[in-house]
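User: Protein folding is very new to me. Would you mind checking the protein record under this note? It all follows right here:
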Amino acid sequence: MNKKLISSVLTTAVGIAILLFGMISCDSCKCKNCPAPNACKDCCCVDGDSTKVCSDTSCPCTKVEKKLPLNISIFLDLSDRLAQTDDVYSQEVLDSAIISNITLWFAKNTRGPGILQSQNRIKVFFHPDPKDPAVLNYAKNLDYDITQYEGIEKTKTLTQLDSTFWANLKPLYEGAISEQKWIGSDVWGFFSYADVDNSCIRSGFRNVIFIITDGYLYYAPNSAIPNANLTPSSLSNPQFRLEVKRDGLDDLEVCMLEVRPESVTQREPLLQVLSTWFTTMGIKPENLKIATTSKPNNTAVIIENFLNK
């Protein structure tokens, strides 16, 4: 075989090898400023150059959806529901398991390489604000904003988050139950006016609110407002609907847990009234979950699925 032909064959073979190598190496390409590993290979690595800056608006990687920082709120109903119990679990045990599952998921999804830049936030709150100074003292320890901590303190506080929250909630449960003195809650008022916007919605965040309540929305001062209270007797009217005062809550995810219908026949009407109220205010159906009371393991699955959707 003549030397020119051999040289030509070798050159072609090397060229093919380089091309194939370039194509293979593109699978692990990470361009500068790329929001996701391997997402830039089609636009930045086409010629094997992994030094390009990801700025072309036609590049697939610029269309990768970034994870929003978390803004999780837990609205706790401290009404006479706390005195309820079933054959096995007290309401305190059920509530504590829910709060633990949420805080542990939050901690798990906040740790990692991005912890120093994280803006994640989680809090437990009541509405209206308690007037008792002792309750307010506990409440101030139920708001965790990771940006308020530096370096190793971020990880340390995350590790202690679950125990810190419950250490401040347990006395509230024990005090309320032993004294039969209920702080109460106003879920309808919280959503109907600007409170939910100011307290639970941040621009550029994934805004999630968990509401731990029995599903019957009763607050004495609202009695003068038609259809502002949802009670067992309300559901005797098949046409009953909660008064809707606003809309625009499309940037909020709602998960209501521990709903406890007074009877089997009230289950579907209660869930329907609540669901209609939320969606009419703008909550997207895919961002809404209303679940009746259940064993902690069952509720844990609901929480996990909702947060991981």
